[in-house]
Amino acid sequence: MDITGLSHEASGVGRIEGRVVFVPEAIPGDRVKIRLVHLKKRLGYGELVEILEASSDRRAQSCPHAPECGGCQLQHMEYGAQLRWKRQQVVDAMERIGGLDLEVLPTVGMNIPYHYRNKAQLPLGQADSGLVMGFFRKGSHDIVDMETCEIQHPLITKLALVLKRTVQELGIEPYDEINHTGVLRHAVIRVSFSRDQLMLILVTRTSDLPKQNEFLTRLREAVPELVSVAHNVNPDVTNVILGRDTRVIWGESYLMDSIGHLDYAISPGSFFQVNPVQTKVLYDLVREAMQLNGSETVLDLYCGAGTIGLYLAADAREIIGVETFAAAVEDARYNARLNGIDRATFYVGRAEDVLPELVKEHGKVDGVILDPPRKGCDPSLLETLATAQIRRICYVSCNPSTLARDLSYLKKNGYVPGPVQPVDMFPWTRHVECVALMSRVEK
Ligand SMILES: C[S@@+](CC[C@H](N)C(=O)[O-])C[C@H]1O[C@@H](n2cnc3c(N)ncnc32)[C@H](O)[C@@H]1O
Fold this sequence. Notes:
- By secondary structure, this protein is an alpha/beta fold.
- It folds into three domains: about 1-60, CATH 2.40.50.140; about 120-260, CATH 2.40.50.1070; about 275-440, Rossmann fold (3-Layer(aba) Sandwich), CATH 3.40.50.150.
- The protein is about 25% helix and about 30% strand.
- It contains nine helices and 21 strands.
- The strands form four sheets. Strands 8-7-6-9-10-11-12 form a seven-stranded mixed β-sheet, with helices on one face.
- It starts with a strand and ends with a strand.
- The structure holds S-adenosylmethionine.
């Protein structure tokens, strides 16, 4: 079978007797032998048995964990080809889901597509071989013991390896997911690229962190870059990593990082873009798209820790951010003060609930930035945008499917979609981020 496309889940796509067949680990240009594992009326799923002829875009996997780890789905594809296929996925989503014939620009990739992640969430567990800490095996909750990682910052790997050794030496019990026993569930590690500093969040099932003082002393001695340690308690039977209670138990309350000209304080639980190098690229694209002249009121909806709005604040008269996660809004306010920005206001609430009031209060809003989670914007928010007179809307999206759906709605309701710019925030993975501009049709 010839593989002619790549699905958004990073499976190769081909056809057998008119049916679309998805084959994990195959890539466009491969000729493969497969075993059909699941067949439906119009589609099927195959298992790769043999590569008969390899695509010219195929490469040898460079990470020793690649065959088992679920993190990087495109380790076997050349980087340039990844960028081309990510663009193609956006084109396909625009056409098939949005019915949109839009210009989609070439994906902006990274010059060095390695060691870009500033955050790792590492589960711990007990295997037959002993303590394991790393990543979940593809499609399972077995833990692959991590020795190295090509996409996370090297300081994260350094701390992770010291942490695992220390847990072993002190005999701290890892969590047992099946029986819901044991203590240490996850180590969440964040790194500041601009400062070379680390924050560690230890997630335990129990309210106590055993041998806390000895544990912290050993970590700090072995990893001087560590500046903050927090303890999070998660007693629930759940896949959610962080529980409700987080307490800084040593060092700084925030990890400080910079994106371009701005400093940001990141608290243990707050959302911060995972790839800071490409975040600057992304935010510069938003700034370029918005074309602000200093006189505008700009709404930053789904603002997280206020990062995009604050990045643009010097170009606008006023920034108003809206976000549901209260701790992130606190960070946003803190970040505004930190950067001496007094023309930024942040509200806790759902963007769809707060937007109608903001539009009523401000009359004509000049610009809106949308950066929703994967499920896209709430229909009622899009309805409000359709009736409001917004000059420019810049939509930042991590999901081309919901982006296409939402752009299609806005196009039918008074906005002209501009080109869509894919940005590669996550090299070697199937994910693609997009920036799309919408302008109001002048009547
Ligand atoms: C993709 S993140 C964007 C964060 C931020 N713009 C940035 O660049 O760091 C999406 C954010 O939307 C928030 N969120 C989810 N649903 C929301 C809603 N209905 N209204 C407002 N914020 C929401 C999440 O808590 C999260 O912080």
